[in-house]
Every structure is written in C-alpha cells, then in structure tokens.
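FOLDING PROBLEM:
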Amino acid sequence: MTTPTRVYIARLAGLAVFDPNGDQVGRVRDAVARLRTTNRPPQIVGLVAEMPMRRRIFLPINRITSIDADSVVLGTGTLNLRRFEKRPNELLVLEDLLDRRVTIEPDGRPGIVVDMAMECSRTGEWSLAKVAVRAHSGRLTRRGQLQQLDWDRVRGVIGVPDTQGTASLLALLEGMRPADLANALQEMPDARRNEVAAALDDERLADVLEELPEHDQVEIIAALDRERAADVLEEMDPDDAADLLAELPRAEQEVLFELMEPEEADPVRQLMKYQKGTAGSVMTSEPVILTPDATVAEALARIREPQLPPAIAAQIFVARAPMATPTGRFLGIVHFQRLLREAPSEILGGVLDSGIDPLQPDTPLLEITRRMATYDLVALPVVDTANRLVGAVTVDDVLDHSLPPDWRDRSGDADA
C-alpha cells in the first residue's frame, strides 16, 4: 500500500477513483466517519464516491489500497453500487464538519474548522486525529492563523452547531459543474443546503437552481429574502425562471415580478402565458439572433461567448430588426458548421437555411420531438402568426420536459 498514514480529507475531494483494472469508477466527494461512545476520535469507515449519472456510493476504507495526490485505487472485490445513505451514528466529514465554529483548548480561543486529517493506526484503523482550525484570537496572534491540532484540543466539533459557516465548503465545491453541485446540495440536510445555496453568488445559484428538482428550487428560493430571490431569478434563463415561478402561489409571483427589473420580468411573464406542454411553454426567449447583413465573423464571435449553453450556441437565428423577441420577420437559420465553412466576410443572408418550418407557440411537445429526431436538429425556431421569432426550443428543453417530473431528484434513485 502506498497510502500515507495521514491524509487531509479536503485534499481528497474530487480525486478520481480507479478499480484494480485502471478503469475510473467515479470521484471522491467525502469521507464517512462513525461516532464512538467514548471520547476517542470518530472512526473513518469509508469514502463516498460520485459515479456517472450522479449516483453516490460507499467505498469501504478496507477496499482502498492506495491514496496519492492524484487518485484513489481500489483493491479486488465486488463494488456495491447501492446508493449511499448516511446512518444515524455516522457523519460526512466535509459536509457536516467543515466551517464549524469551535473552541481551542486549553485557552478557549474561538476558531473555524477548515480541514480534518484521518490517520491510520498500527492495526490499520483510520480515525479523525487532526483538526485544521483557523484561529481568531487577540493581538498577540495574527487573526486567521491556521493551526493543526490534535482532536482532543478542539471542543465543539461534534454535535449540533450553534453556527456554521460555508467558506471552506464553498471552496471545495467551487470547481464543480452546476449539475454536480446541485447533486451535492440534494445530499445535504435542508438547513445546510439552504445555507450553502444562499452563500453562492447570484449567477452561480441561478445555474444550480436550473439543475435542481422543482421542490428543491422552491424551498431554496423561499429561504432567501425576496430581493435576493428576485436577483437570482433575473440571472436564470427565462424559461427556467418561468417554470420555477409557476410553482409559487400567485401572490408570491407578483411580489417577485415587482422586484425584478422590467426587462428581465417581461419575457418570463410572457412565457408563463403559454399552455403547458407546448413549444411556447418550453422555449427560451433568448436564442442567438442576428440580422441578415451581419457577417460570418460576427456570428462566430457571438456563439463563442462562454456563457451560452451548447444547444443555444449551435445555430444563429436570422431575422429583421428588432433583435429582441418578438423580432421582425423571421428569415431562417445558420448552423455553426456552415459558419465554419464560409469566409468570415460572408453575410448571413447569403448562407442561411430557410427550409426548416418553424414551430408555432401551441405546437405540442410530441410533435417537436418528432421534428427534431427526423431532421437531426438541436433547436427549432418558434414564430407567432406574424412570422416574428418569439423564441427557440432546444433539445435540452425537450429532454427536460419529456423525462419524468422527478428525474432530477436523487432521493428517489432505485438501488442498483
């Protein structure tokens, strides 16, 4: 075994987990500690790994043969794919203990937990032996000094915390994709989930909310003050904001609409008028739109913008001014592959595809799915009776609304 005898657990987060054949199983998300009836430090019984499709499984500590700076390697044996569930006498080290406010003995100075180390005894048992604490003391000690302390020198690590921050946990979650961060939030107790969600900036929280099931979206939004909730809704895609608001009572909807900027609220209001299960109800009102005299170079620059989702960036919708939906007369589509084959100075009016029949706002979802599958498209335009572009339905919108309503809810995963 090449594993060191002391491992700081925050450094494990995100490491790849490999089976004995060298195939990646998933990535480490946390460590599981079992509480003891004595004052001895909690025993580390395993790690939690996240597999593809965001399933979290338990890896017993005795199955792990190697831990280094880049990976965790498992030994031989059958891997239990049952979804991980924390037992009553267990805790997750990073999720439950990071950012706790504690007291450093013997002088009673306050501090905040920023990491914890597990150590292996001569008998092969792993336990939480060291606590990394950022201390806050008087004039003689620099504020924020980091100390590595023995377990018995830190009081208040175990038990219900009076207060618990989020800074260290957020630092660990920072590099996660929104969908993975959404999954991590679903694994947390409601109070902790709401604390972490509230600590995210508006844009990041908006991205994460779009990946959560509706009941979690509603609970997180309800836990924010109304002005902050309105700010987050403004950062969401209009179609996702409309879906979330539709789950709220009418009176609450109006309060939030009043707090939103009119230019952000108006597209969301419009989307909420369409019948559920139609193109109007699932479309985005902010596709990439350019005029026919725009050049290929301008179009390529536009779809390179990093904030654009891939399905939106896959095509340019060409229409007469104005460019905001509802636009002037819709003319056609230019796919990004066509842009790559044309000279940068070529104008879009000369290369657009006008042979794709646009959807109407009342086109049912089943018909949209058939058209996308028939013509291998990732997006379809939606026009009104005056042939003005009012939005676009993307393949991710179709998938989102075709799957069961609770498909994002990890709590209902069937056991493997």
User: Anything to note?
Assistant: The two ends are 30 Å apart (CA to CA). The domain at 178-273 is CATH 1.25.60.10 (MgtE N-terminal fold). The chain has a mean pLDDT of 89. The chain is about 30% helix and 25% strand.
